[in-house]
Each structure stands twice: as structure tokens, then as C-alpha cells.
Design a protein that fits this description.
The protein is mostly helical and 174 residues long. The chain is built from 7 helices and no strands.
Length: 174
């Protein structure tokens, strides 16, 4: 008697893992991490900017925020980021840092619109740091505001992008 051929179970397609979400504003984890690292970077930069002898380190804080964003994202998601992904996450951190800066600039500009506040700030600056008095005068013109915002955007997005790229490179090692 001939045996029936063994019944083969139908081949199930393997469950493919969904590709990781792209780094961008639609990736909730990336957005949360970028926002937190941007705030931390700005806070650290402001603190270091006030400590004599450590002002030069304040410029490294935005770069560190991009690196930290990649580190936290890799650790939290378990996903390895490409150099482009690290750069994009750093850039997101920089954009949020810029937006926080714009809010702070706006508040400061509104306060400078009151003569009493502007005079008090100028007098304080003249006693302690005359270069700040010049920056305030510059900040009270539309051209000065535009220059300050443009330079802040470039600085606060380029440095974290670079930091994110370095983070992706260093954390991608096997």
C-alpha cells in the first residue's frame, strides 16, 4: 500500500518586523528626546556662559545636545542610527533649541520695549559688561533682531547636527 505523501503545512510568510520609524517630527520618541536634549543643551550653555573661564565650553553644549539625543534614542529604541539618522535627530534637537531661543528672545524684546526695563538692563550692563549694552542696542533694531535670529538658527542647528552625526558614528561601532 502506498503511503500518502506527508501533508505539508502551508508556508506562512515570516512576520517581518516593521521598519523603524523615520527620524522626524512624526516620530514621537525622536521628538520627545530632541525637545528634552535641546532644553538641557540651552540650560547648560546659559550656565557655562556665566562661569568665568568656562564661557568657551558653552559653545559645545549644542553639539553635546545632538550627541545626547542620539545616545538616548539608541538606548531607548534599541535601534541603530545611520549617520544621516543621527544628523537628522541632532538637527531636530537644534530646531527645538532654536524655537526655545526665539521664545526667550521674544520675551526679552517685549521687556526691552518698556523704557524702565531697558534703562535698568543698560545700566547694569555698562557696569559689568559693556559689550552687552552694545548687543542690546543692536537687538533693538529690526536688522539686529534678524541678524541675531539668523545666526542663532545657524549655530543652534549646525552644531547639534554635527553632534548627532558624531553620536551615530561612535555608537554604531560593533
Amino acid at each position: 500500500m502506498e503511503e500518502d505523501a506527508p501533508a505539508h503545512a502551508p508556508i506562512e510568510p515570516r512576520e517581518l518586523a516593521a521598519p523603524p520609524p523615520r527620524i522626524g517630527f512624526s516620530n514621537g520618541l525622536a521628538v520627545r528626546i530632541a525637545l528634552v536634549t535641546a532644553a538641557l543643551g540651552l540650560f547648560a550653555s546659559m550656565l557655562l556662559g556665566q562661569v568665568p573661564g568656562l564661557q568657551a565650553l558653552a559653545i559645545l553644549c549644542p553639539m553635546a545636545s545632538g550627541f545626547l539625543a542620539v545616545y538616548l534614542y539608541v538606548r531607548r529604541s534599541g535601534e541603530r542610527l545611520s549617520l544621516a539618522g543621527g544628523a537628522h535627530l541632532g538637527w531636530l534637537s537644534g530646531v527645538f533649541g532654536f524655537l526655545i531661543t526665539v521664545v526667550l528672545f521674544t520675551i526679552f524684546a517685549l521687556l526691552l520695549a518698556t523704557p524702565e526695563f531697558a534703562d535698568a538692563v543698560r545700566q547694569q550692563a555698562m557696569r559689568n559688561r559693556p559689550e552687552i549694552a552694545e548687543a542690546i542696542r543692536e537687538f533693538q533694531t529690526p536688522e539686529g533682531v534678524a541678524r541675531a535670529l539668523a545666526s542663532s538658527f545657524l549655530l543652534l542647528t549646525a552644531l547639534p547636527t554635527f553632534g548627532g552625526t558624531i553620536g551615530a558614528k561612535l555608537l554604531h561601532r560593533d
